[in-house]
């Protein structure tokens, strides 16, 4: 006769409940009629779960009431807690490494294929694998681990679609964006029964994408020449070294001539004496003064808003006159828009600047045309304008996950010289540092959206790009390397362009996180095992095995920089809250992945401070409060989950103290 283990009393009952827990899984019932919203609008319903396509685009809950069973009550379509295996089918590959989303189909006949189970997309990092890829299985393993016992419906992660109340205003975000990362946070929140936070991101799209302009635009008067000089000086000191699209002396001279013309003619309105030839100069001047006014005030100003609105009012004129002056104005306009949280508008504007640059040949080194005469200063300016466009677009490509209009193979211009002697003031030296980093940013974006032939090629390319980031950090002067930021009691060091150093450091850390965050998203065991499988063939295997630590350390560095800047009241149009938000999301992901670790407690304090810092900056920029609520909701849920995990560990510890000597917990 089998001997029964000794009874442990109430403590043993609690322990058994904690150690062995069987979750009941409800059977999925497919609804075979149109949902209430589709019937109301009299449109065709595809009867998909958890939501039909129409409700998904409108962001509405998909509820169905069966008219044949009026007493049955409404039915909300939900996905079964147990995910089924799906394999991606390689679709047609688009040119230049940019690919559309993979179409998914069931790997075998299952109940899901008969009950309308929705086709599940792959994750950000695993969507480009072949059908037999290890990462495809790792994605399903991630869902098995983090969705067990929950009914959280996850949406596509390689394509993020945001809509407003109608299904017509659609905005697309790529998987390298913040919202793509938030989908993976939803997986871990769903494990604990919390609602997803990623749908709240759509409330921030209107602020980022739309710019409200008056129907009857007016041109503001130029201020006194002394005020103009102050605004332009602030711009040239803070922003121009990284985006030197203007010739300092020529721009100041043109502004002075325009001011003297106004003093001589004294018109009632500025447009009375101006022609379309003055439009590029005016748009450039208003953009510069908008940036300079905000830089001087250390915050968003009404004066800066007025100048920005006036500069954007010339947008149609700039496009209608596709020449060098228009490109300069559009680049400056995109910088001003990004500094105010209008990243979507900045992406549109810099895209138009790139198109005009291509049309006037800024991307080509016109050697045959100029070989009979010495190089002119205008040629150097054209080169600086092009590389400013290049760097701006590569940065926005990585942050938004949208395609780029510039490919490295399209231009034959030599990269800016990295030596300080290339320019008397060292300004081209700063541009060279920034452009060399932006080139790596672009390669990371293409790597994320490309289709590798195998898991080995993906890991190999990831290691090579990580090596490129390390080479960049080693090649720049010591004062510009990430981690070399100098803070003193009197403020940041005046010996170095502090804001430029901090900007480059933030972009470097952001690139590290974007490149290596698969190590934190995917199950660590599967990720490490695949690296060890190619141990003898991967030259960077040690760095790849440290990817998780690299991501977390980069996130901590970003948060520390953001907190230091906030404490000192340092503001710049270059320093947006996007990197801090990315670091906040990564810290949350790390805490939720391993809430039992002791480091989770210290990371919680850093995560809390980072989320509060993001809230401060987004309110200052005028973001929608519903979007800002993402941070508060995430902060509350992470705290609750960590607290509940601590209470559970304490209960287990107390229960184990009552176990008889030699009794194993699994008995």
Automatic annotation (TrEMBL):
Name of the molecule in the record: Fungal-specific transcription factor domain-containing protein
Alphabetical list of CDD domains matching this protein: fungal_TF_MHR, GAL4
Biased composition (Low complexity): 100-114
SMART domains registered for this protein in UniProt: Fungal_trans, GAL4
A Pfam match: Fungal_trans
Keywords carried by this UniProt record: Metal-binding, Nucleus
Gene3D superfamilies: Zn(2)-C6 fungal-type DNA-binding domain
Compositional bias ranges of the Polar residues kind: 115-126
Top-rank taxon: Eukaryota
MF terms in GO: DNA binding; DNA-binding transcription factor activity, RNA polymerase II-specific; zinc ion binding
Coiled coil: none
Domain Zn(2)-C6 fungal-type: 34-64
PROSITE patterns: ZN2_CY6_FUNGAL_1, ZN2_CY6_FUNGAL_2
InterPro entries: AtrR-like, XnlR_reg_dom, Zn2-C6_fun-type_DNA-bd_sf, Zn2Cys6_DnaBD
Region listing for Disordered, in residue ranges: 66-128
Biological process, per Gene Ontology: DNA-templated transcription
